[in-house]
């Protein structure tokens, strides 16, 4: 396996319209209009972006069992810059060059401020995860890294109907009807009609 | 010669002592046997008395039958079903079945006294209040069959407006009896919701059956 490292582009872009970065049965990531973006490249090819803007994250981290549903959905606004790898062509068509006003609208004095934050996030993400996945423009794979309040990043992976979310104190895995939820209290494994709960 | 006589006499004395011990041993053993026999008889007698109390001689061989009336029987059946479900759930929670066999993970619930001490009656009242509405119970009943979208629930509860339905769903969600998916938007009944609904139905059935009498 050849290990690569991601690099940031120099130009700052902005979203012309609200775009869905992820839309599956269980997960939704949306970036609003006029959000900032900087391309993340691997071997000179754009593999994703670092965004900053009005971002909505919604995840149905719920396990359905025959005894009732367990877990709570996640719905929050991401206020810090976040990383999205493996994004679609639709997004690329919705991006244009950002100007100073766009940067100021997001609270940055200049492009370097945003680039510094983006670089910090990328370096945080890449610390243990050197690029080894092939994220082509039409790839269904996508990885998101959202900075959390504990100074770490929450990771969201998606591949079609498959979804993995790892945050502080929880891990959620879904593959069709099969789901696994690990919380500080228990681990729940659920398949169609079968459920195993393990108290931790 | 004197030495020989002494040795013979000494061996005779030892022989006699041993015989005495053997005799005493046999004597003690007989006593114990007798005692054991008496005890066994007493135990057998007590067992017989106990059997007569639990199972009258007339019914012996046909199983235990106590006529306590149909409603109570139904209630007992429900309770036993609940207990069975509880045991099953507890086993499910506490036992991990892996490729290398079963493993008991932890003891489950706190003691009954601890549960009662930590009961927040205000919370209980809130839960009862959430259950205390016909439409909300009907919503729970619909959700017992699986997750549903608002429009599906609206179809089932056509006599109430969308805003009223939404208000009921909010109450159920606030009390944790239902949960709404944020992406698909379906409403699902939670584990506590299912338990609360079942309990409400059981108590109502029991009280209803009692009133009919």
Can you describe this structure in just a few lines?
The complex is a heterodimer of chains A (200) and B (213). Chain A has 200 residues and is mainly beta. Chain A has 3 helices and 18 strands.
Structure description:
The complex is a heterodimer of chains A (200) and B (213). Chain A is mainly beta and 200 residues long. Chain A has one domain (7-168). Chain A has three helices and 18 strands. In chain A, strands 11-1-4-5-10-12-13-14-15-16-17-18 form a twelve-stranded antiparallel sheet. The termini of chain A are far apart. The model of chain A has no long low-confidence stretch (mean pLDDT 87). By secondary structure, chain B is mainly alpha-helical. Chain B has three domains: 1-54; 68-119, no CATH class; 121-212, Orthogonal Bundle (Arc Repressor Mutant, subunit A), CATH 1.10.10.10. Chain B contains eight helices and four strands, in the order ααββαααααββα. Chain B has a two-stranded antiparallel sheet. In chain B, strands 3-4 form a two-stranded antiparallel sheet. In chain B, β3 (178-180) and β4 (187-189) form a beta hairpin. In chain B, α2 packs antiparallel against α8. Chain B is elongated. At the A-B interface, β8 and β18 of A face α2 and α8 of B.
Tally the helices of chain B. 8
- Helix coverage percent of chain B: 55-70%
**CATH topology (level 3) name of the largest domain in chain B:** Arc Repressor Mutant, subunit A
Order of helices and strands of chain A: EEEEEEEEEEHEHHEEEEEEE
Q: Pairing-aware structural class of the strands and helices of chain A? A: mainly beta
Instruction: Please tell me what the overall shape of chain A is.
Output: elongated
Most strands sheet of chain B: 2 strands, antiparallel
Instruction: Determine the structural class of chain B based on helices, strands and strand pairing.
Output: mainly alpha
Total beta strand runs of chain A: 18
Element order, helices and strands of chain B?
HHEEHHHHHEEH
Q: What count of domains describes the coordinates of chain B?
A: 3
Proportion of residues in extended strands of chain A: over 45%
Q: Tell me the span between the first and last alpha carbons of chain B.
A: 107 Å
């Amino acid at each position: 396996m050849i290990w690569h490292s991601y690099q940031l582009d120099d130009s700052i872009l902005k979203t012309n319209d609200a775009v869905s970065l992820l839309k599956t049965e269980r997960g939704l990531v949306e970036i609003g209009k006029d959000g900032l973006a900087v391309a993340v490249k691997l071997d000179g090819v754009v593999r994703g972006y670092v965004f900053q803007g009005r971002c909505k994250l919604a995840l149905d981290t719920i396990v359905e069992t025959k005894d009732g549903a367990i877990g709570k959905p996640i719905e929050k606004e991401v206020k810090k810059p976040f990383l999205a790898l493996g994004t679609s062509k639709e997004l690329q068509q919705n991006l244009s060059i950002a100007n100073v006003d766009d940067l100021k609208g997001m609270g940055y004095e200049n492009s370097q401020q945003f680039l510094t934050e983006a670089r910090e996030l990328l370096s945080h993400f890449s610390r243990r995860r050197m690029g080894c996945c092939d994220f082509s423009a039409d790839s269904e794979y996508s990885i998101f890294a959202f900075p959390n309040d504990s100074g770490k990043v929450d990771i969201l992976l998606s591949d079609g109907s498959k979804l993995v979310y790892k945050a502080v104190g929880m891990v959620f895995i879904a593959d069709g009807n099969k789901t696994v939820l690990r919380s500080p209290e228990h681990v729940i494994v659920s398949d169609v009609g079968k459920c195993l709960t393990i108290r931790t | 010669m004197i030495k020989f006589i002494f040795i013979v006499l000494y061996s005779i004395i030892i022989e006699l002592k041993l015989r005495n011990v053997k005799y005493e041993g046999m004597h003690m053993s007989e006593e114990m046997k007798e005692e054991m026999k008496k005890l066994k008889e007493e135990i057998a007698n007590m067992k017989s008395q106990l059997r007569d109390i639990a199972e009258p001689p007339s019914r012996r061989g046909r199983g235990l039958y106590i006529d306590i009336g149909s409603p109570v029987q139904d209630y007992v059946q429900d309770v036993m079903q609940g207990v069975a479900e509880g045991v099953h759930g507890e086993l499910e929670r506490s036992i991990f079945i892996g490729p290398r066999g079963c493993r008991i993970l932890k003891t489950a619930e706190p003691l009954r006294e601890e549960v009662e001490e930590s009961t927040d009656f205000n919370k209980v009242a809130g839960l009862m209040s959430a259950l205390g509405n016909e439409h909300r119970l009907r919503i729970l009943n619909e959700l017992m069959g699986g997750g549903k979208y608002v429009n599906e629930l609206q179809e089932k509860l056509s006599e109430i407006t969308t805003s009223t339905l939404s208000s009921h769903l909010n109450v159920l969600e606030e009390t944790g009896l239902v949960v709404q998916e944020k992406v698909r938007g379906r409403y699902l009944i939670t584990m506590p919701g299912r338990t609360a609904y079942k309990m409400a139905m059981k108590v109502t059935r029991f009280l209803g059956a009692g009133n009919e009498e």
